[in-house]
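Comment thread on ticket #2218

A.B. wrote:
> Attaching the input chain for the structure job we discussed in standup.
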Amino acid sequence: MTPDDQALVDRFLDMMAAEAGASRHTLAAYRNDLERSAEALGGAVGTADAAAVGRLGGQWRDLAAATVARRSAALRRFYGFLVDEGLRRDDPSGALPRPRFERPLPRILEPDEVARMFEQAEDRAASGAGIALRNLALLELLYGSGLRASELVTLPRGALRKGQPFLILRGKGDKERLVPISSRAEAAVDRWLEQVPANSLWLFPSGKSHLSRVRLFQIVRQLAADAGIPPERVSPHVLRHAFATHLLSGGADLRVLQSLLGHADIATTQIYTHVDSARLVELVNSRHPLATRSR
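C.D. wrote:
> Ran it. Output below, let me know if you need it in another format.
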């Protein structure tokens, strides 16, 4: 990437941070996509014309459709910024490839499988062992509140307040949302807190910092294996999917679910409706005005 392009990208990312509230991880992803695009364009991304941009489709043909879509989206936003700022007159993003791909359906667990994981975790926590109490608290918050892994491991020690059935969480995109806390989760966290040093900054400390996402992943897989579930089927995000899927099946409103999960776009939340087709058919048959009308 040329020095001039580097300066343009820096200005673009400054805008994303200041105006769009993009997180550090989002900014790093944008930078990486723009740098890879610059390489494909021969080093010049800010001044590339429509013909050069149009050739990217051929150069990206071996990449996954999701990767092409993400890089194209990054370039569209970048070129839109350049035009808005008067840094170039034309917007060549119309020549970018628009791959069609289907978003993969989320991997989920059946309610009885989740119940088995809880049974095993509760049996071990009954011993009062610190590790077992921690693991049960982690499981309760993952499945009971639908937290992202990064949100869970970075919870401060005082995140949950006694008698408060929710916590205010700053999640993806630095956006705040209310997260429900069940009485079960509150009880599990209370027991675990007895093991957490009073001077700890984190609810789930580890060494000089907090539990890592990698370690959380390992813990969840071990909990699955203990319950007789193939560990490769389970991850912290699969438990978040289970939280959403089972709530929707139980009658939760899609907009409420969007708020609980912290999705910016309801289209992201709608993917969970694939598991609810049977309930939708039943709803139409029982609630539609014509359902009770005789022929």
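A.B. wrote:
> Thanks. Noting for the ticket: Residues 3-95 form a domain with the DNA polymerase; domain 1 fold (CATH 1.10.150.130).
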